[in-house]
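Blinded run. Sample ID left blank on purpose so nobody reads anything into the name before looking at the predicted structure. Input follows.
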Amino acid sequence: VTRLRRIVFRVRSQDQGFSWDRQNHGTFAGSWTWFEAIVRKSDERDRNPRITLMEHHRGPPNDDHVKKRFELQRNRHAGTQLEDYEIVFDEGDARMTEIKDVLTEGDVFEVRACAAFPAWENRVDHAEVEVWSLDNLGRSNEVWPGARGRGADEPINHHHLDQ
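Blinded prediction complete.
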């Protein structure tokens, strides 16, 4: 895990497009749709060591195996069009240090699209994660393309991280 040097998250998404809170329209304030990055222990859901699209489910996910959670990005409040976001965790970033502190061989890295309330939607067109390690830093990076999906607390995709 010490070879982990950079993680790049790219999402294309939007808020559900309407809200009565007009003062926050077009800003990130008051947005109740967002993305989270999660490090968790592998469990029975993890059949493919590369990419697994998990089934949509209602209600909160089972977080029994979650080791670390980070908020990645909020959608623009009452967004009316899809937007592209890029979030980078680099070596030396406190979030990267926290990931390295808890990450062990076989753990799963998961990206979740979240919405706080039943009527709110996190409309996801695309999610992608790049993981850079010392072995390929400066040459070619390993890109694990995201799956397509949408919904409240829906895992977009997840990956095993090996040492």
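Unblinding after everyone has recorded impressions. Residues 132 and 140 are 9 Å apart (CA to CA).
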